[in-house]
Amino acid sequence: GQQLNQSPQSMFIQEGEDVSMNCTSSSIFNTWLWYKQDPGEGPVLLIALYKAGELTSNGRLTAQFGITRKDSFLNISASIPSDVGIYFCAGQRGSQGNLIFGKGTKLSVKP
Amino acid sequence: ETGVTQTPRHLVMGMTNKKSLKCEQHLGHNAMYWYKQSAKKPLELMFVYSLEERVENNSVPSRFSPECPNSSHLFLHLHTLQPEDSALYLCASSQDYEDAYEQYFGPGTRLTVT
Question: Which of B50, B96, B102 sits opposite A48 (nearest CB)?
């Protein structure tokens, strides 16, 4: 079935460092979404990207929709302890609501 | 209440029990989704309802039975589950099924089957 390859699987960083994670696919996607999930909670939508090449920011978070439409990355600048959690990418291929999710990147931030 | 709510948050059930998970969305959305989240696996889409009609059923075993009585409520009825069904079950909603890229999730029900 369709898969998204998300990397890295986990990251251990120092507070204040920048973070970068990405998702790739062998297929073209029309939409890329980035979610964050805290322990015991559901995923929360961070950023939605709709056009190839689009670069969108949400506070310290920046995400880009790859030009080839087969990848996306998420950057977090100046990380803080509350950035801890699992970050998921999700892509949508057609015009309907089904999303395909990556396996997640687990972020740990050391104060 | 705002957003998407789910009850119960935690559920432990035996393999012969029958239980139901409930989801309610307060966003005025027309599409609702059930996902299963297991450790080390991507979220798996189970069912999709659009305007109270099921539009997607991704080869889910019949021991899982969804119900959507109206556009705000979604249920997942469970019976004779297996231990491997233990997981976090997430409900989500989106404005519509077509062209609805942004799905909003509830907090999930942590299900343990003993």
Answer: B102
Contacts of B46 in chain A (CB under 8 A): none
**Closest partner CB to B90 (pick from A42, A48, A102):** A42
Q: Is residue A74 within 8 Å of A61, Cβ to Cβ? A: yes
> β-pairing, A10-14 with A5-7?
unpaired
Q: How confident is the model at residue A18 (pLDDT cuts 50, 70, 90)?
A: very high
Q: Which of A31, A29, A66 minimizes the C-alpha distance to A49?
A: A31
Token readout for B108 is 């999930």
Residue B60: burial class (beta carbons within 10 Å; 0-12, 13-18, 19+): middle
Q: How do residues B71-84 score in pLDDT, each as one tens digit? A: 999 999 999 999 99
Strand pairing class (B64-70; B73-79): antiparallel
Which residue in chain A is spatially nearest to B93 when comparing CA positions? A97
Q: Examine the pLDDT at A22 and tell me if it is beyond 90.
A: yes
A101 half-sphere exposure, CB direction, 13 A CA radius: 24
Average pLDDT over residues B59-88: 95
pLDDT > 60? residue B1 = no
- Rounded to a whole number, what is the distance in Å from the CA of A93 to chain B's nearest CA? 10
For residue A34, the chain B residue with the least C-alpha distance is B102
Please tell me chain A's helix, strand, coil percentages from 3-state DSSP, rounded to the nearest 5.
5, 55, 45
d(CA A109, CA A11): 8
